[in-house]
Amino acid sequence: YYDSDDRALLEGTVTLRRAEERDEEIRESYVEILSSNRYRSLASPFSLDEFLWSRDMVDTRCFRLFIRGSRETALIPFADMPNHASSCALSWKYVDEQRSFVANATCSLKEGSEVFLNYGNKDNTLLLAKYGFAMEDNS
Which residues pair with 65 in a beta bridge? Predict the structure, then answer.
């Protein structure tokens, strides 16, 4: 979700193209949702700008999990708080038997040290377009 100042800085980049493609997909979802019967009774439907912001908040914080054999998307309070790192990050999964989201360190951690998540194998254009940051030495 880039404002006009951010977009001006990204003019001519692959990152801006990816962000614009994503925004277009979200716009299409917005039109589809508002044209469905489900939301016709709203006195004041949400604006496109509110929808773009909301979708971005969900999309950048959700986890894709297998729950009882089905691929699901879930928001898990506090689990989205760690920063990204490609090594020594938490691994995570849903454990059906425990009915729980479980995160484990993939390396030894010292008490009080920061923990990280690995957002996946993404190049900087995708990290910047989706999450708003880039990493050194990451092509």
Answer: 72
